[in-house]
Amino acid sequence: MLENLLVTGAAGGIGKALRPLLADMAKSVVLSDIVEIDDLSAHERFQACELSDGVAVRTLVEGVDGIIHLGGISVEQPFELILNGNIIGAYNLFEAARQADRPRIIFASSNHAIGFYRRDQNIDNTVVPRPDSLYGVSKAFGESLASLYADKFGLECLSVRIGSLFPEPINPRMLATWLAVEDFADLCARAFAAPRLGHTIIYGMSANDETWWDNTNAAFLGWHPKHSSAKWRVKVLAAAGREDPDSREVVFQGGGFVTLDHPG
User: Fold this and answer.
1) 207-230, pLDDT tens digit by residue?
2) Are strands 44-46 and 66-69 parallel, antiparallel or unpaired?
3) Chain mean pLDDT for the chain
4) I need a labelling partner for 101 at 20 to 30 A (CA). Which of 67, 82, 226, 229 fits?
5) Is 15 exposed, middle or buried (0-12, 13-18, 19+ CB in 10 A)?
6) Cα separation of 26 and 36, whole Å?
7) Known catalytic residue: 149?
8) Smallest Cα–Cα separation from 239: which of 145, 169, 190?
9) Which one from 91, 135, 149, 203 is the annotated catalytic residue?
10) Taking 90 as the threshold, does the pLDDT of residue 101 lie above it?
11) Distance between the two ends of the chain, CA-based, in angstroms?
C-alpha cells in the first residue's frame, strides 16, 4: 500500500468513479483539480493546481510516492487548450516527479492515440501512434514523454490507453473498448506494486468478448480483468440499430473522433 497517492484531474468522470476504490491503494490520497472537491473522506485532502503552472505542480508532487495522472483536457478542443492542459501539463508533472523522489506514474493515455488503426486489425504496444485528433496527439506526446523519463531518468510509468471508462457501454464500439472502473483500479494497484515497471504501455479494456488490442507485453503485471461488456451486448445492439459498415467511424478504432472537424 502506498503512503501518499496523488490523483490529478480528480474532479473529472474517471476521477469521481475511481475515488471510492483508492482507500485500498493508499493510506492518504491527495485529490487535485482546478475544480474544488469538498466531499472529502478522512483519508483524502484537496489541493487545487493548474497543470500549466510548473511551480504549482512541483509543490503538488512533493511527498507523494505514487501518481495517477488523469488531469488535462479529456476531449477534442482547440490546440491552445490541449497545449496547456495536456502537453505543458504532462511535461510539468513528469519534470516535477523527476525533481522529487521519482514516484511511479499511471498516465491516463487514450485509445485515441491509435484511433486511425482499423477495427479489423489487432494491435499491440509496439505499433506507431496513429492519433485521430489533437487530443490523441497530446496522448501520444505523453507516452513519448513517459518513455524518455523512464529511459533517461529511471522514472517508471504505466501508460494506459484507456478505451471507454463508463458505468456501462452505451454504443456498439464500447462493446470492444469498455473498461470497468474496478478493473482500472486493480491495474493501477498492480502497477504500483510490480517489482519493475520501466515504461509499459497497456490497453485499458475489460475482459470483453470483442477486442482489437493485445496486452501480451504487460502479462508480467498479472492483470486479469474481471468484468465484461457482454451482459449489455443485446441491449446495446438493439438500441443502436444497423450501422453502416463502410462509415469511417465504424471502420476505424477511434470511432466518432476520426470524423470530427478541426477544432480551430
Assistant:
1) 999 999 999 999 999 999 999 999
2) unpaired
3) 96
4) 82
5) buried
6) 21
7) no
8) 169
9) 135
10) no
11) 44
With 90 as the cut, is the pLDDT of residue 241 above it?
no
Q: Please report which helix (H) or strand (E) contains residue 161, including its range.
A: strand 157-162
- pTM, to two decimals: 0.94
Q: Identify residue 89 by its one-letter amino acid code.
A: G
Higher pLDDT, 241 or 47: 47
Q: Going by C-beta distance under 8 Å and a sequence separation of 6 or more, which residues neighbour residue 46?
A: 10, 30, 31, 32, 33, 36, 37, 38, 40
Rounded distance between C-alpha atoms, residue 43 and residue 29, angstroms: 6
Helix (H) or strand (E) holding 132: none
Q: Where do runs of H (alpha helix) occur along 27-133?
A: 54-61, 79-82, 89-99
Contacts of 167 (CB under 8 A, 6+ apart): 17
More confident residue, 241 or 8: 8
**Rounded-to-integer distance, Cα 190 and Cα 220, Å:** 10
pLDDT-derived band at 264, boundaries 50, 70, 90: confident
Structure-block grid coordinates of residue 142: 505523453
The grid coordinates listed for 170 are: 452505451
The cell 511535461 sits on which residue? 91
Gap between the Cα atoms of 169 and 163, Å rounded = 11
Beta bridge partners of 107: 69, 159
- Evaluate if residue 188 carries a pLDDT over 90: yes
5, 64 in Cβ contact below 8 A?
Answer: yes
Among 9, 25, 53, which residue's Cα sits nearest to residue 190? Answer: 25
Cell numbers that stand for 19 in this block: 475515488
Q: How far apart are CA 38 and CA 57, in angstroms?
A: 20
